[in-house]
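INFO  loader      accepted 1 record
INFO  loader      residues=393
INFO  predictor   begin
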Amino acid sequence: MSTNVIMPALGFDMTEGLLVRWLKNEGDPVEKDQAIAEIETEKATVEIEAAASGILSRIIVQAGETVPVGAVIGVIAGAGEEVAEVPPPSPPLPPPVPKAGEGAAPSGARVKASPVARKMAEEAGLDLSRVKGTGPGGRVVERDVQAAIATGSAPAPPGVPAGPVPGATVPLNRMRKTIARRMTESKATAPHFYITVEINMDDAIKMREQLNGLVPEADRISVNDLVVAAAARTLARFPALNASYREGNLEMHPQVNIGIAVALEDGLIPPVLRDADKKTLKRIAAESRALTERARANKLRSDDLGGGTFTVSNLGMFDVDEFIAIINPPEAAILAVGAVTRRPVAAAGEVRISSLMKTTLSVDHRVADGAQAGRFMQEFKKLLESPVTLLAG
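INFO  predictor   done
INFO  writer      dumping tokens
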């Protein structure tokens, strides 16, 4: 029985995706869960895996084409199986034809470009909307950017970071535009409130050191792994914060899927750790490490994005003591994590130095109130201050 390869939805607001390239040719054998194509979304280039084993019997959408979410882009079938004709998806409306002297596209318009071309343009300080694309469907490819540079567009001067040039207006890249839009929508539509707690991490740090002394360096547990584990278990006990507000109703999510914010050169992306409340600390550490590595290598898979129900954003590695984060819609909350710092603490009539960490929960007030959020943070703090409970399960 044949299986359609579809353009996946990798976010609640994703409507279309660009097929960057096929990793398999028509007629090649494929295995279930094997990467067979790469697509580009507004925030990342993602690999699509085969949903079944068989033969890639038909390629319907070619590299360089942008198609709607849910469109059939290929077909996997058994050896010798006849596959019915599948009409190609309707192409998106073409951009308006520029007038003479205006360049390839209106400034600020969404430009179809390959990841390599986009990166090259950013480094050279080029506005892609002014570059004429010669790739499939008018897509800007590497040779187009090279030609634009050769005909007069200069790269950033020495000593100046790629892209920003003093005195210049630099257009936002695709990821930054998406972040700008989503964060503006979040602040405009979700009434945020914030709760900060300070957590004594002495026992958590001690337990982490003991565990890490028993395993190879590649398998070590980070402070963020402890935070994610504690947040996941707390969310399972407070489902109101594992929900989304939709048109006057609360959508209670059956899974605890935690987005782990990863800082990339172009912006922040939150690949998702699924069913985090059901995973051991060891597995959380391993999967979080793999997610982060794939994000930084631009090798995220289709199931790494979308479906998040809560996000953890940690800036502790930058020596940030405390900050607040904007909720990632349609989630109800996000946890901002600061650095673990050594500070004096008064306890039992004496002052001693302890490892302290501040965390701030941003909450959508349409979903939960202060008392609910306060109890959530109380339980979260309790788990990290008694970390042996995170080893259960």
